Fold:
Amino acid sequence: MAAKRTKRNQDEHRFLEQYDADAFERLSVSVDVSLLTQVGGELRVFLVRRDEHPFRGQWSLPGGFVGVDESLEAAARRVLRDKAALEGVFLEQLFTFGQPDRDPRTRVLTVAYYALVDWSRLAELPTGSDAALATLHVPFAGETGGPVDVTVDGEPLLVAFDHADIVGMAIKRLRGKLDYAPIGFQLLPERFTLLQLQQLHETVLGQQLNKDSFRRRMLQSGMLEATGEREKAVGHRPAELYRFVHRSAI
Amino acid sequence: MAAKRTKRNQDEHRFLEQYDADAFERLSVSVDVSLLTQVGGELRVFLVRRDEHPFRGQWSLPGGFVGVDESLEAAARRVLRDKAALEGVFLEQLFTFGQPDRDPRTRVLTVAYYALVDWSRLAELPTGSDAALATLHVPFAGETGGPVDVTVDGEPLLVAFDHADIVGMAIKRLRGKLDYAPIGFQLLPERFTLLQLQQLHETVLGQQLNKDSFRRRMLQSGMLEATGEREKAVGHRPAELYRFVHRSAI
DNA sequence: AAAATAGTGTCTATGAGACACTATAGT
DNA sequence: ACTATAGTGTCTCATAGACACTATTTT
Structure:
C-alpha cells in the first residue's frame, strides 16, 4: 500500500516535470480596481487618464496585468499602491469580466476588485490631467448593475473599456452589502457621528432614511462603540462620536 | 476637429496592429462548475474522477480551459454540456480563485461558476467509477465559506485542487441568495407543493423553518402562481401545486 | 434668547411565530 | 372511522416608522 502510493507520487512527479504549460492557450489577465469614496453626499471613484493606446486620453480604472507568481489580491494591492499611493485599505473581489472583445488589443480577462476609503485619504492625491476623483451618477435608486455616468465638475468623462460597467457593479455590490456587513465604516473616518453614518448610507443607497429607526438599528447592531467624545464647534448641540467595533463572534 | 479625431483613430489602429500580446506574461485560465442539486433532504454536487495527473484518481468539479475566443460563461456551459449532458440550466459566476500554487502543473487561474438543477435531470446520469453525485456535509448551519466534506454512501471522497473550497463558497452563495432572489425553484421540478419548497429551503439553509410564516412569506412574495392542480395518491389531503412566475418588474 | 441638531419616550402599523381549528385525501 | 397533511383564522410579540418632547451647544 505504501509502495503503491509512492509509485503514484513518482508518476505524478514525472508528469509534472514534463508538463507543457502551453498545451492550452493562455490568456492575458489583469486586475482593475474600483476605488470608491464618499464626500458631500456624493459617491466618487478614482480614475486615471490613459496615456497610451488603446483609448488614449480616456479615463479608466487603475489596473495592471497579473504576474505569473502573483496572487490576484496581491496584484490589486500593488495597483492601489502604485497608482493611488494607498496601503491597507478594504479590498474585495467583485467579478471577473471576460467578454472576448472587451479589449481591442487581445483577449484580456480582468478580475475586478473594489476598494473603499475615507475621503481624507484621497483628498491629498494630486488629481488633474492624469488622475481624477469622478462623481458617480447612478441610474436609479434601487438596483443598478449597468454602466454608470461619471463626471468631474459636471462634465462627463469618457470611460475606457467596459469600466463603466465595472463601476456600476461595484456600486450594486456596495449597496447590497451595506445593510448586513460592517462595510460602511470603511468610507468614514475612525470616529464619526450617527448623522454622518446615516448620511453615508443615504449617499450609497440613493434614498432618505428614517432617523429614529436608523439610530436604533445601528445602536442595537452591536457594531458601534461610543467613545465618550463629542464633536466640537458645530453651532448646535454636539453629537457623540462613535467608533466601529470589530467583533469576533458574528 | 474631425481630422484630428481621424488621426487619432489611425494612430490607435496602427498601435493595435502592432500590439504584441506577449508583452505581458499570460496565464492558463479554466472554469470549474459546482453543479448542485437536492434530494431527500440532502444537498449534492456533481463530481468527476480525474483519470489524468495531477490528482489522478481523486474527484474534482467538472471544468476545462477557456478558449481564446470563448466567453467565460460559454466555457462553463460547454463544460456542463460535455461532462453532465446538461443545457439551459441556471448558471452564475461565483468567484475567481487565483492562488499561484493552487494547481501543481503551472499557474492556473480558475473562474468558478455554480449551477442549479432539479434532481430529476441528474438522476439519469451514469455515475460510478467516473462520475458521482456526492453528498455535501456543510460545517455548520450559519455561514460557511470554508471547504466542505464530500461523501458517497457515507464514504469520504478525496477532492482535488481547492475544489472543496469552491463548493463551500457555492453553498454560502446559495444560502445568501435564497431568501431574496428567485433562485430556489431552480432546484425543484416545474410544479411543486409549498411543503416541497419549504423542505428545499430547510435543506439549503440547514435549519428548520416555521411553516406558517414560510407559507405567508412565499404567497405574499408574488413569486408563486397556483396551478389549480393537486398532488395525487399521497395518503392524506393533497396539496396544491404551484409554479414560479418570472416577474419582469422588481 | 434664538437656532439647530442630539437624543428620549411613546404610540401605531406591520410582519413573524405560535396555536387552534377546519378540510380533504387515502386506508 | 382513522390518520396525516393542507390550509385558515386569530392572538401575541418584536421591530420600524412617526411624532412629540426635552437637552445642549454656538451665535
